[in-house]
Specification:
Blueprint: H1 5-12, H2 25-39, H3 52-59, H4 63-76, E1 79-82, E2 86-89, H5 98-101, E3 115-116, H6 129-142, H7 157-171, E4 180-183, H8 186-193, E5 205-208, H9 213-221, E6 226-229, E7 231-232, E8 235-236, E9 246-249, H10 263-276, E10 279-283, E11 307-312, E12 324-327, H11 330-340, H12 349-360, H13 363-389, E13 394-396, E14 404-407, H14 413-422, E15 425-426, E16 428-429, E17 445-448, H15 455-469
Parallel strand pairs: 3-15, 5-6, 5-9, 9-10, 10-11
Antiparallel strand pairs: 1-2, 4-12, 7-8, 11-12, 13-14, 14-17, 16-17
Helix pairs in contact: 1-3, 2-4, 3-4, 6-12, 7-12, 13-15, 14-15
């Protein structure tokens, strides 16, 4: 009896897709198909092929046909066959790619910057791999069977409960698990809140005069008109809110300029929302990382019915862990779940359970405290280096977060960015974050992501930055 395809696949543990065709009989067609699979690179050197009996059963050919094809290709040098090791693609059968025929030296500059000081990402080398693996294993071992079926669009109850406790304790957020909806980050939250055709919120939306251009583009694509609130030493000028029904703020640590929203303005914006029937969207993107004193609590704690609180692990753990959360007034929960849909591309359930365990076990708190100390030390090193080697540059904003803004003399931003590129430093200019419709006076500066480099690379990155900031390193401004 001929083995079934399922039987042979179970036995060899691997499938091999071939389509023998053409003149000369089945043996010749199989040889051509195998030779072409190797020549094209689809079968890489060292790939183990199925036993000829299994291949014959899969293709519906005689065993002798498959055995003869293997023997022919071994003789030609395309395959190797050893006792106990099976039949494999020969190492010297690797296809010759165009790049290998005419190697070209890539200029050093084309390989990218040597020093990454772009804002927005934590030190990737500090991800708590051991703790995450332990939480993942526990979550997997303890997960009930229903975890592996269709999920709840709101997210796993275990994570929503863990976040309810954590956010209350660490950020002063007042909520319950039924008002927490899991998402994959702040951008995903914006898409859900302002989804075209089924928007939970509608424009116009007031935003801060400086913020991420990506977020403004996302809102514009959803048909949301944004108006810009100027900033001063006390944060966003919420007293200038007009006919808007919603306002988007980064009150704990304004992005990117770095100041917190003053207590009086926190109270004022809540009063505005109550009087206007409006809502505040609070982006608490790095609220855990305050270095000069305890972190400022969330605005949401002042009025949970007027604030949509959004957070994520993008800064505390990694942007690769696509997990965030919305803490919603009850009236918005159903609308957000409808926007997510029954088969929306949710964050992995196993990742949700892992994060829930990481928080409940205390490992998340320990990691945040450890990184708080490390990032504070990095910011201190930045301030000290600038004081010693670029004293004309001012570090602004509070000691918090994963980035700092360096204020520059008027007209110096572009030349500093060019000098930084010459030194191999990737850096953002402050102008890139300015709302195009704001009438707030432009300020020259650069945004330094001091958390991004690994620990061993940070010293060299600081040296290169200080060289770029030196007036002698900057090209002279053209006259006329």
């Amino acid at each position: 009896m001929v083995d079934s395809w399922v039987d042979s696949a179970e036995r060899i543990g691997a499938d091999l897709h071939l389509e023998p065709a053409g003149p000369g009989g089945r043996r010749a067609a199989l040889i051509r198909a195998l030779r072409e699979a190797v020549r094209s690179g689809r079968l890489a050197p060292g790939t183990r092929l199925p036993p000829y009996r299994s291949l014959a059963a899969d293709l519906g050919v005689a065993r002798n046909t498959a055995a003869d094809a293997y023997a022919e290709l071994v003789a030609e040098g395309w395959l190797t066959a050893r006792q106990g090791s099976g039949t494999r693609v020969a190492d010297r059968a690797a296809p010759l790619r165009p790049a290998e025929r005419s190697p070209a030296r890539t200029p050093a500059r084309a390989r990218g910057p040597r020093h990454d000081l772009l804002q927005g990402t934590p030190d990737a080398s500090s991800f708590p791999r051991t703790a995450w693996l332990a939480s993942y294993r526990r979550a997997l071992q303890q997960a009930p069977n229903e975890v592996f079926g269709p999920g709840d669009p709101a997210g796993r109850r275990e994570l929503r409960e863990a976040l309810t406790e954590y956010l209350a304790r660490a950020r002063g957020v007042r909520t319950e698990p039924g008002r927490v909806v899991i998402c994959s980050g702040f951008a995903h939250a914006l898409r859900l809140l302002f989804a075209p055709g089924g928007a939970v919120l509608r424009g116009p939306l007031a935003v801060e005069a400086y913020g991420l251009e990506f977020h403004r583009e996302l809102l514009a694509a959803a048909g949301v008109r944004t108006t810009a609130l100027p900033l001063d030493e006390d944060g966003a000028r919420v007293d200038l809110l007009g006919r808007e029904r919603a306002v988007l703020l980064t009150p704990a640590h304004q992005f990117p300029t770095g100041g917190p929203l003053h207590a009086s303005r926190r109270a004022a914006v809540v009063d505005w929302a109550r009087a206007r029937g409006g809502v505040i969207v609070e982006d608490d993107y790095d609220g855990e990382f305050r270095y000069d004193r305890r972190p400022v609590g969330a605005v949401q704690g002042l009025d949970p019915d007027r604030v949509i609180y959004v957070g994520s692990v993008s800064k505390s753990l990694s942007p690769a862990v696509r997990l965030g959360w919305m803490v919603l007034p009850e009236r918005y929960v159903d609308g957000v779940l409808a926007a997510k849909g029954e088969r929306e591309a949710w964050a992995s359930v196993l990742d949700q359970l892992s994060l829930a365990d990481l928080i409940s076990s205390g490992a998340y708190d320990r990691h945040v405290r450890r990184m708080r100390q490390r990032y504070r030390a990095r910011r201190d090193r930045l301030v000290e280096a600038l004081a010693a080697r670029a004293s004309h540059v001012e570090v602004t904003g509070v000691a918090a977060g994963l980035h700092a803004v360096l204020r520059l003399p008027s007209g110096a931003e572009r030349s500093v960015l060019r000098a930084a590129a010459e030194q191999g430093v990737a850096l953002d200019g402050l102008a890139a974050f300015r709302h195009p419709a704001t009438d707030m006076a432009a300020q020259d500066g650069v945004v330094v992501g001091y958390a991004t480099p690994s620990e061993h690379a940070y010293g060299a990155a600081l040296d290169a930055l200080c060289r770029a900031l030196s007036p002698s390193a900057r090209p002279a401004r053209a006259s006329g």
